[in-house]
Amino acid sequence: MGSELIYRRHENQPVPDTYSPKQPKPWLAVERPVRYLLREQRLLFVLVGMALATLVFTLAPRAPLSPVKSTRPTTSDFTALESLSHRVAFETQPSYSFNPGGKIPLGLKRKGLRIVVTGGAGFVGSHLVDRLIKRGDSVIVVDNFFTGRKENVMHHFGNPRFELIRHDVVEPLLLEVDQIYHLACPASPVHYKFNPCVVWHKTNVVGTLNMLGLAKRVGARFLLTSTSEVYGDPLQHPQVETYWGNVNPIGVRSCYDEGKRTAETLTMDYHRGAGVEVRIARIFNTYGPRMCIDDGRVVSNFVAQALRKEPLTVYGDGKQTRSFQYVSDLVEGLIRLMEGEHVGPFNLGNPGEFTMLELAKVVQETIDPNARIEFRPNTEDDPHKRKPDITRAKEMLGWEPKVALRQGLPLMVKDFRTRVFGDQKEASSVAS
């Protein structure tokens, strides 16, 4: 039979002896340091070092004591101190009065920030970069040049406070920065209808997630440039920030409208869930120099057509309304929002409202009174009215637009005239 291991619960098991620690040796705390010093003649080296140090300090020459003077400062002392302060202020980097976190005490200077501007080679981004560089910040422009142009920022090449990275925000980016202006996204119908999947899913969702992740990792403040398109074809006029909009989620413009609405959602989720400092701006129609000439937006369309002696194309009956702000007003609003203490969203736009026919007449007055207007069928999902309520921006940011349409349009026309006729000269020279 096989052997069995039988355990009888009722039998008493042997109890092992209890553990008793060894008695501590006396003088152990003294014995170990003494052994350490005596081992390998360490004590001898310590004594020799002490003797050499004493010898050096004893034989070293001493400086003669100067007679004690009065501690009360004299007029010459103040003069020398004042000249020294002026020289230090002149030799240090120039500072600017704009303050990101409140008022700076008198006499202190603002430290330049390290700022990322995605889409910084585009129309609005390049003007924002100009302002940030001018006030003394270090700016990193991130752009894939889908709609941006290197010519918009070439005047900063060679500036040690300017960097340009050709990069698509749908790929992660690791940088150490203080602020992030997230402008990267095609904003004109011609561009965002070219590849809706790329615009909506990749740029507005993945790109925004990447930039929010960067802000979370490095503790940077994040500003999202959203759009008035989040209101869709609004049933409320003018539009306030608390209005949720009237958007067709499956229309031809929905890739842009819903993409920006999703970007706002992600931004607020990171703010509430991860504690990221965020700001949200809803930008209304903006115009000015450096706009893409053929991007399909109404102001650039009218100006380019008038310069080329082409008819001004008005879609529908021309009674749709829009509000147009000059780019410098928008840049001022973005900076005030970033430096302020309010999350938003904030409407940034000019409440001056124009119909498309009124805009066409202003363009005629500015460029060519004989320009002809041509009517075409209206586009799908084209909003009928668009006008911002900027009460919140006025009260919380102290911001409102300054440049009227008839003041800003000639500046845009001058830029377009140079580029339109310059492009034609280049094309004719290549053909010849």
TrEMBL record:
Sequence similarity: Belongs to the NAD(P)-dependent epimerase/dehydratase family. UDP-glucuronic acid decarboxylase subfamily.
Transmembrane segments: 42-60
EC number: 4.1.1.35
Protein keywords: Decarboxylase, Golgi apparatus, Lyase, Membrane, NAD, Transmembrane, Transmembrane helix
Protein name: UDP-glucuronate decarboxylase
Species this protein is from: Aristolochia fimbriata (White veined hardy Dutchman's pipe vine)
Membrane topology annotation: Single-pass type II membrane protein
GO biological process: D-xylose metabolic process
Keyword Cytoplasm in record: no
Organism lineage string: Eukaryota, Viridiplantae, Streptophyta, Embryophyta, Tracheophyta
Gene Ontology cellular component list: Golgi cisterna membrane
Pathway of action: Nucleotide-sugar biosynthesis; UDP-alpha-D-xylose biosynthesis; UDP-alpha-D-xylose from UDP-alpha-D-glucuronate: step 1/1
Keyword Lyase: yes
Subcellular location: Golgi apparatus, Golgi stack membrane
Function per UniProt: Catalyzes the NAD-dependent decarboxylation of UDP-glucuronic acid to UDP-xylose. Necessary for the biosynthesis of the core tetrasaccharide in glycosaminoglycan biosynthesis.
Any one GO molecular function term: UDP-glucuronate decarboxylase activity
Cofactor(s) listed in the protein's UniProt record: NAD(+)
Domain of life: Eukaryota
NAD(P)-binding domain ranges (all copies): 117-410
